[in-house]
Amino acid sequence: MHDSPRPTPHGSPRPTTHDSPRPTPRPTPGAPLARVATALRAPLTRRAWAEAAYCLLAFPLSLAGGVVLLVFLALGAGLTVSLVGAVIGVLVLVGCLWLARGLGGLHRGLASGLLGERVPGPVPPRPGSGLFGRVDARLRDSAGWRAVWYVLAKLPVGALGMYAVLFWGTGLINLTAPLRWGVFGQQASPADGGGMPVVTPVPVGGFDVHTFAGTFVAVPLGLALLLLAPWTTRLVVEADRRLLRALLGPGLAARVRDLEETRALAVDDSVALLRRVERDLHDGAQVRLVAVAMSLDMIKERLGEPDGGGRGGTGQGVQDRSDQADPAGQGTARPPIDLDRVRQLVDGAHRNATEALTELRDLARGIHPPVLDDGLPDALATLAARSTVPVELTTDIPRRPTPAIETIAYFCAAELLTNVIKHSGASQVVITATQVTADDGGSGADTGGVLRLCVTDDGRGGASLGAGSGLIGLTQRVRTVDGSLRVDSPEGGPTTVVVELPPHA
What is the C-alpha to C-alpha distance for residues 297 and 120, in angstroms, rounded to an integer? Predict the structure, then answer.
């Protein structure tokens, strides 16, 4: 419906935004300079420092956790294969799985706090029945074994991350060489062996300087190491991100189960939509159109049948003939037409037809609002302008999402705004719609592109996703496209609802 071309003022069709071909982007003349500027600013960004801090803090955690887990795994495996300590070995292995899950939770928390990498936790293990059933369920815990593999794989990755941090340390040390010489002083004589060392992150290549002028040789080396440092830590962090998602996430079985649930929700939502359309058509527009047809039948009966001659078929001709008596006395004169009654029937038919058109228009708008034809920002602006509560709207959506995602975001905003007006008692609403990418805010979160809708009000709060809440329907709607909805609404307010949707359904 919304993809059909609309005519321009000159009558020629104009392609819509979704169907119009996009020209091939031409390289910008300043693109190389922009890349150079980005590389020069990299050591000063929040993302680079967060990744360096992550590598620095993750190393002791990975070292301690990995060594302890490796020792207990070896002990448990050794006892299990023996005849005497098999039971103890199995219990030790169960404890290793429990420890690995705990360490995995710590690594997920560290990645979420510093990198913005929010990996959902795995599902809890099956409870099992009886002692042996519970032990068997723990040993078959796939999420626990994947956490074991992550903790063990984190040992070399953490060591590489610590090595990448050395680029930051050696760069800063060499960059401050003249300052340290001036503050602390050095022995200038090579015979005394008191030169200042110029360090590098590689085992070879270091040297000493024995004069103040020589310390300035270390400055460009320090700058070069600092410019290289963000990319070394980022390389390690990206490898760690892949391990986090692959080994500490819900896993393939949980993902399949979630997809099955979202597919069922999508099917139920489409069936409910079809039923609503059928009900609205049956109870609304269909009834009014039947009334229009009945009114037209009554008008036809009132006007009578045309006689095919002269002015036959017109109301005036029928009126004239009805006043003439049959000269032979073999027929009866037609009764006069009640024009007031005819006018009432015409007015009723016109009113029913108008209301039927209005209901059909509202029904079509419920399936896809026409205001979305010009994009989600304009649609949200229209929604905010119609609100009875003042709305502060901020949108930053440089790349337009697909129509399905725009429709879901629009209906979520409309429903949340309706809830605010009806239930919160708020005096101000703030709606923010942004596209979050991997470089957003320098957080380093590799989101792959997310449309984030945030609705905040200063009302009484207390909203939740519990049973009976209208937010459950919104949650199911966003889950059909693999989206998410979060609610933060303490008693007394404020209430913040964040909806995150992928750019493509």
Answer: 65
Q: What are the structural domains, with CATH classification, of the chain?
A: 30-249 (no CATH), 254-306+315-321+334-367 (no CATH), 370-501 (3.30.565.10)
At residue 498, the 3 state secondary structure works out as strand
Which is nearest to 427 in space by CA: 453, 400, 460? Answer: 460
How far apart (Å, rounded) are the C-alpha atoms in residues 383 and 429? 12
Dig out the tokens for 439 from the structure: 């470089």
Return d(Cα 399, Cα 421) in angstroms, integer.
Answer: 31
Separation between Cα atoms, residue 102 and residue 248, nearest integer Å: 11
How far is residue 334's CA from residue 463's CA, in Å, rounded to a whole number? 71
Closest CA to 116 of 400, 452, 416, 478: 452
Rounded Cα distance between 432 and 247, Å, is 34
Here the tokens at position 46 are 């929040």
pTM, whole model, 2 decimals?
Answer: 0.54
Mean pLDDT of 29-38: 70
H-only helix segments in 9-45: 31-41
CA distance readout (Å), 269 to 307, 405, 453: 56, 15, 21
| CA 401 from centroid of its chain's CA atoms | 11
pLDDT tens digits, 9-21 = 333 343 333 343 4
**494 or 249, which is more confident:** 494
pLDDT at 327 over 60: no
